[in-house]
Amino acid sequence: MFAQISIFSSPLLRLPAKRLIPAHRVYPGLMLPLGRLWPILFLSLTPFSCFSASIPLCSSSARTFSLCELTFDYRDSELPAGLSPYKDELLHAEFRSPHADTYMVRAFWDGTHALRVRFSPTQAGTWTYRITSPIKRLDNQEATFNAADSGRPGFVSVANLRHWWTTNKQPHLWLGVTAPPMAVDQSAFDTWLDARKHDGFTHIRTTLMTFGAPFKPFNGPLQPNFAYFAALDQRLTDVDDRGLTADLIIADDSFVKSGALDAWDGRQALVRYLVARYGSINCDWQGIERFEDTPNSRALLKDLGDLLKNFDTYRHPRSSDARVTTTPLLLDGWMDYLIEASPNPQLGAVEHQFTEQPQVHLVTATDPAAFRHELWSSTTNGEYPSVSYEALQDPANVKAVQVWFRVMSDTRHWELEPYFDVDNARALGLDEVEYLAYVDKPGIVEVSLPKHKYNPVWVNPANGDELPLKDYRGEIFSRPVPDASHDWVLQVPREGHKAGMLKSYYFESQDPPVQEVEINGAKTPFEIVEPTGDVIDVTKSIPFAIKLTRPNRATRVMEYVWSGEVVADGQGPRVLAIGADGTFQFPMNLIQTFPANLTLRLMAINANGKAYEIDKVYQLTR
């Protein structure tokens, strides 16, 4: 338990205009230094679950891209009538950097008679801030503080179309993992964090609002449970202190189903509170858990995304957790990157050719062989991985992640894109620089290469063992895998050329590829043969199938994604099936009235990565 200091009945000590002691708590009516107050304060402590994370004061310990705090006291009589310290905006600070950049940060209520402002300076030097508040004593105050250079690279943001960098314009390798449950004690969590940082992880994924924790996040509609938020503060500041990025799911399924997000004013108050409390750490936002399972989630996420855009002064990247993929939400305009979770690599491969945002793949497998397959298949699709907490309970998967991190850290991962001049493998490449292939089955691997000298090496993705090959010159690398008993990673770099690029090239050495999707049916080498007719009974399993109309070398490998949307009901599209044929069950939460019209969309890529699309309309009945 923590303690509340009960000294607010004394008359307020009013500060002169333009003179503030903002980074320290000003205790009204008491002129003693804080150190001399403890014998007095100790007598008036009352049980209260309050604030536990150790965050330095901006006035004395501010450092770039590290949290610091300002604290402002008030008493009830100062609040304008009808305002709630949780629900209403009682104070915000506008910070101006040494280079005249401005950031507006809102305060949050800490459960006592105090408002806290959390801020991370983005530049070293002298910062100025000005307070705006309906509390007249605090309004229009100004002060300054100095921020030292922490050496941190800064916040993560989108770069080079589908990749990531930090504020200092250096490449960022996204490798995420889901944090353990809140029930894990703090010491065990810190040990776990240190191990994950050692493994190479750069992102820790966690949920902010859940009823699955040992205690509830709220005691009433306008009353946060500050014990809950104190525990969350400790977790997230520990993540931030280690230089890791926090992937923040706003709410899990239990919180969404509670109805806490149903009303607009409740959503607005919660998002403002969460951003004020956690938006100044290095983070990104990930909407709600498995959004496809929540009715009307498209409208909810659009509101949440717009609120984040409004309240988050740092403009951290935004997306949502997904059971399958967030790509159907792209048209709503609030997302910066995509999340997909299908173990079938066709989904990530196809979506990469139809979109222009970074992709994060949620690795769901836990069996070591399946885990490596999903980890490397998604990587060679051009996606960045985020693995589950459960997967890392197996030491074999921990080792596989360490190998992945070592291999990928040795590449220009911020420029690699799917490479299709390859047989019996999935591959990435940067033209005339380096190539990386994943081989998950026995046989001969062929990679077509520009004619240069390369330094190929086979890597065992299970343990990191390497089998270097002699200097290779040629235009087609064709070799069997060294051992057919397991999967392999093949690196084919031009080491000397790569080393030279690091000295003379900017972040992007080539323009990222963007292709035009072929929608002309006359040029499309396949057609839909099922569902037949133009009516679908949604109460039955629905067959789907394509027929190749022009078999050739380019169509020797085809990958397909089927999605559908009932436009009139406004739920947005959903992925219905993956592959060339099979059956699917139509998701009933996409339909509100019958009969309804379904727009079925088939997206496909061939062996050369060429993208095609066919749309067809069906009537849905039951």
Provide structural commentary.
α9 links the parallel β20 and β21. 20% of the residues lie in helices and 31% in strands. It has 622 residues and is an alpha+beta fold.
Layout of secondary structure:
Elements: E1 2-5, H1 34-42, E2 45-48, H2 58-61, E3 68-73, E4 92-96, E5 102-106, E6 108-109, E7 114-119, E8 125-132, E9 142-147, E10 156-159, E11 163-166, E12 176-178, H3 186-199, E13 203-209, E14 218-220, E15 223-224, H4 226-241, E16 245-251, H5 253-257, H6 264-278, E17 283-286, H7 297-311, E18 318-319, E19 338-340, H8 345-354, E20 359-363, H9 368-380, E21 384-387, H10 395-409, E22 417-419, E23 422-423, E24 426-430, E25 434-439, E26 444-454, E27 457-459, E28 466-468, E29 472-480, E30 488-493, H11 495-504, E31 526-530, E32 535-537, E33 542-548, E34 559-565, E35 574-578, E36 581-584, E37 596-605, E38 611-621
Parallel strand pairs: 12-13, 12-21, 13-16, 16-17, 17-18, 19-20, 20-21, 32-38
Antiparallel strand pairs: 1-2, 3-7, 4-5, 4-8, 6-7, 8-9, 10-11, 14-15, 22-24, 23-26, 24-25, 25-30, 26-29, 27-28, 27-30, 31-33, 33-36, 34-35, 34-37, 37-38
Helix pairs in contact: 3-4, 6-7, 9-10
Shape: globular
Low-confidence stretches: 1-52
Helix content: 10-25%
Quaternary: single chain
Give the number of DSSP strands.
38
N-to-C span: 57 Å
Q: DSSP helix count?
A: 11
Q: Main beta sheet: strand number and arrangement?
A: 8 strands, parallel
How are the strands ordered across the major sheet? 18-17-16-13-12-21-20-19
What is the strand content? 25-35%
Chain-averaged pLDDT: 89
